[in-house]
Amino acid sequence: MTHPADWPKAGAIDLDVHDLPHASSSTEWWYLNGHLRTATGRDLSFFVSFFRVVKGRDEATGDFEHAHSITFALSDPAGQRYWHESRVDKDAPRMGLQKVDRGEGARDQRLRRAIREVLVKGKVPYPDQVFGGEVFVDARKLDLEFDGQRLSKDDAGRYHLHLRQNHAHVGLDVCFAPQKPAVRHGQDGVVKGVSGEDMFYYFLPRCEVTGSVLLPGGPEPVTAGQGWYDHEFGLHQGKTTAEGERQKGQEIGWNWLGLQLHDGRELSAYRMVDEHTGESVGQLAVLVAPDGSRQAWHDFTLDGDATWTSTRTFADYPTRWRIAVPDAAIDVVATAAFDDQEFITVISKPAFWEGRVHAQGRIGGEPVEGLGYLEHSGQNTIADLDGFFSAVGRQVRKSVDKLAPHDPSWEQVRDLVAAPDRPQYMQGVDVPQFTRTMIKPVRAIVDRGGKSWRSYAALACCDIVGGDSRQYVQWLAMPELMHVGSLIVDDVQDKSTIRRGGPTAHLVYGEALAINAGTACYFMGQKLLTGRQMSAANKLRLYDLYFESLRAGHAGQALDLDGVDAEMPRAVEHGGGTWLEDRVLAVHRLKTAVPAASLARMGAVVGGGSEAQIEGIGRFFESVGLAFQIVDDVLNLRGFKGDLKSRGEDIAHGKVTLPVAKGMARLDRGDRAWLWDCVRQKSDDRTQIEAVIAKLEACGAIETCAVEARVLVESAWRALDPLVEDSLPKVMLRAFGWYVLERHY
User: Fold this and answer.
1) Which of 3.40.50.300, 1.10.600.10, 3.10.180.10, 1.10.260.40 is the CATH number of 534-745?
2) 197-217: per-residue pLDDT in tens?
3) Which residues of the chain does CATH 2.40.370.10 include?
4) Are 641 and 744 in contact (CB under 8 A)?
5) Would the pTM of this model clear 0.85, i.e. be above it?
6) H or E segment and range at residue 8
7) Which of 464, 494, 495, 684 shows the greatest Cβ crowding within 10 Å of its Cβ?
8) What is the pLDDT of residue 532?
9) For the segment 420-466, what is each residue's pLDDT rounded down to a tens digit?
């Protein structure tokens, strides 16, 4: 294939020419990373990428017009802090809309709809930010300034970086002085891009880095630093079907590794993979000697393990990677300096992992070690919101396991029974007996999994007001324990036999132990109401919200147990109305909506939300919780995801649900009497059940419920929308509201 005339020719790469923007390129980026030590002894690492991609052509000249963006992150291993920022072109909302309307980006259609709502306002969801200033790209020398973030090159060939992260007030003012010549990656510099296009890729494997770092405590001078620079550019010529190129519908992810070893060598490798099959669609490993000479191999493995799961996106990331090149006797393991180096950006589905790694292993039989960067992008196994909440559920169960493991230690039991400073309360307590009678009934229900949206609510509502939910990750177990406790006790009261696909706790452990263990769940959750930098006032407020949800839940259960049967003769004689519907909705509100709203408010409180935000978020989740139960009533009659065999169970159990209550207001007296007679019979006769469902459909009772649920969610969202910044957590909550309404699809 003939490559553009402005690509490097054979021989040494002329950096004065090829560091410049390439007019032929539709995709181009400049990337740098570095490892620094400051005057106070802090070890830090960073990376930055300046991007430009074609968005059209100038009508007069035919030249490419580009959109620009920048990603920047600073890692602090000792403090386990990862500050990151993504800024995008002012035209990004329009370009994003085009992408969404083509069905690209997020796989879940609800997420695409939620993102679209932000884009049509001319905004992008935070942490992405639209450039507030201008973009300058010099065509005569390397000088890029993207909204105040700058990369430039001086006459001595040194690269200068000026970067600032606005929200955390961190940044860099550093200089890269190359210590080795440019090295070609790929096949003499040519690699495949994610769309099958040819790209040219070269890098400077080692530079001395000097300057200063801005940290929250102020600037610190750099006393030692080493850096990496690379530049990649190419022309996207459309999807093809040629071998090795991207097929239509194929999604490509990649792993990239750049290591600077203490013996003066550098090791770099990339592996591009099909996101669906995990198969490699192109890879190369390059070893650079101290003198700058290069060796390359196609035959190698780059495998990750030690999976870490984000508690913000719930994506899984390998944090330990092994690269093995048999022909070169290379066997090196790169381990994350700390796990949470996830870069969240909606423009990248919705995050990737790129961070500092420590390397150790052997090359040619000799031990090596060093520092580096690793990027893991794409390959996200979460395809939709069902998958997302399944991932949340896995983390919820892990969180419960930390608090109440199957085989707890004496100390873990002590913390559940009393407190660390009162060990005398454990005198005579038999740990196996406690485990069997208290923990086992709870874990029997928890471990079967369930709807994890309640657990997600508190964390998401912390982030949506600008807080950091990672400080409260232990909260994942709290809503689950509250919910499971109520389920265990409810099952005893309702004489239920099946819960989450298995026998109810009281059938396995007896009613007495089940009631006690279920009640104990409420107090286990209380142990988790902690967090760094939580004020006494906030802790008191959390306790009030926590017990508010428990009071409401028990009140709702009392009303549910007694039911509305005594009022049905009145409804038959005089017709139902809002009074009957309100009685049904009161149970839904108290048992589901209030606990959801309380948890949401708790998250917003610790996130530092304003009073208006806290109340708006609470009202939204109150509406979502109420809508959730209304939709459950509807799905029980219409069937869930195509399962029509068990529909109408509420009728068979004699429950007066909201569709029945609405039916009593819409039918004439004869039909009302017939409807109530069918319900109170608690018959499992399919013909009769289908007749009841048909009657409720015909009078519009079921559809009216579905509409009411949607109105609840949409009106609450309209009230919340202007109160909180457009962000990824906000997008997720918007999509979640639709998920509740549309989960039968």
Assistant:
1) 1.10.600.10
2) 789 999 999 999 999 999 998
3) 1-90+131-238, 250-383
4) yes
5) yes
6) none
7) 464
8) 65
9) 888 899 999 999 999 999 999 999 999 998 878 888 888 899 999 99
Whole-number pLDDT of residue 242: 34
* CATH architecture for segment(s) 1-90+131-238: Beta Barrel (2.40)
Closest CA to 720 of 626, 616, 621, 618: 616
3-state secondary structure 518-540: HHHHHHHHHCCCCCCCCCHHHHH
Using CA atoms, how far apart are residues 293 and 183, in angstroms rounded to an integer? 8
- Report whether 481 contacts 525 (CB < 8 A): yes
- Tell me if 257 sits within 8 A of 377, measured CB to CB: no
Cα–Cα dist 214/212, whole Å: 7
Closest by CA position to 190, among listed 282, 308, 73? 282
Secondary structure (DSSP) of 134-149: -EEE-SSS-EEEETTE
Give the phi and the psi of residue 192 in degrees, each rounded to 5. Answer: -90, 135
Decide: helix, strand or coil at residue 38. Answer: strand
CATH superfamily, domain at 386-532: Farnesyl Diphosphate Synthase (1.10.600.10)
Contact between 86 and 69 (Cβ < 8 Å): yes
Whole-number Cα distances in Å, 646 to 159, 237, 487, 603, 640: 68, 53, 21, 37, 9
Mean pLDDT rounded to a whole number for the chain: 91
**Omega prior to 127 cis, within 30 of 0:** yes
Q: What is the CATH topology of the domain spanning 250-383? A: AttH-like fold (2.40.370)
151/41 Cα distance (integer angstroms)? 26
Q: Under DSSP, is residue 731 helix (H, G, I), strand (E, B) or coil? A: helix
Residue 52: what are its φ and ψ, rounded to 5°?
-145, 135
Quickly state the pLDDT bin for 727 (edges 50, 70, 90).
Answer: very high
Q: Which helix (H) or strand (E) holds 197?
A: none
Determine the average pLDDT of the residues in 300-324. Answer: 93
Which residues of the chain form CATH 1.10.600.10? 386-532, 534-745
Q: Which residues are bridge partners to 215 per DSSP?
A: 218
